[in-house]
Amino acid sequence: MPQLTIRGIPAERIREVSQPMLEELAAICECGTDNFMIDCMETTSVFAGQRVDTYPFIEISWFERGTETRDRFAFALTKHIHAIGIEEVELAFKIYSEDAYYINGKRFNLL
Amino acid sequence: MPQLTIRGIPAERIREVSQPMLEELAAICECGTDNFMIDCMETTSVFAGQRVDTYPFIEISWFERGTETRDRFAFALTKHIHAIGIEEVELAFKIYSEDAYYINGKRFNLL
Amino acid sequence: MPQLTIRGIPAERIREVSQPMLEELAAICECGTDNFMIDCMETTSVFAGQRVDTYPFIEISWFERGTETRDRFAFALTKHIHAIGIEEVELAFKIYSEDAYYINGKRFNLL
Is-above-0.95 flag for pTM? Predict the structure, then answer.
């Protein structure tokens, strides 16, 4: 955590930008880069009777960090995605609860 | 948004029904069809020691629209899925918050 | 439901352990094993400029069952994952609402 689950952007493009992107996002979160997971999903998208390119979308799963941090995170992440030539991207933050997250069987809020 | 994330139904089947389905769902949401994303996920499912077909399941990610709209949306979506010969399908609605959703770096509730 | 959405663990490994795992999890939930879905997702992960193995992660989507059941569920699930040689795994529980879940178009809390 945080976990970036990506659709509609090739993993190869994300790989290119991943190092500076993670460094900036980790600084915003005040955690190490090794807390992050970046997973690109295989999807097939359809629209109006056609197969279409999947719209670039990133779901960020994390513990709530407040509006200011979220705004900065979203701005930085979007900047790096734009920098690899993806002109439009939407982000949604999904909140995991610390009492419903387990690392090797141990509840996070008890660690 | 709304975003339909589908597992257990081939994209090709969804493609066939996508145009009338989107028109009906967009009318229920009072938005344009181009607000929708339909993404079919690659999954491998297992049950009781066997590989099995993935159970047809659709997660709808959207902003909360209330029970009446949700009921109508679920009924219409299910009808279209049944019409392509998928006899059983389950739907779950996942709520994104307008203050935690970003389009090109800009927070949705400020757009 | 419950629905286990898995990334970073091959479906073949999950298949091997699925029968005893489901029996134990179903006993904890006091439901039948046939209520469960186990879906392994295709992902490509990156980190720090490299393609990397996806970190083992399971999202459990269910209706809220309280802390004690969740702790037991997490402990049992983790035990089975460790038993197939996956040394590290993280779990997150995602709550679906009974009034936003539909089976064949019928709202769950009305069934």
Answer: yes
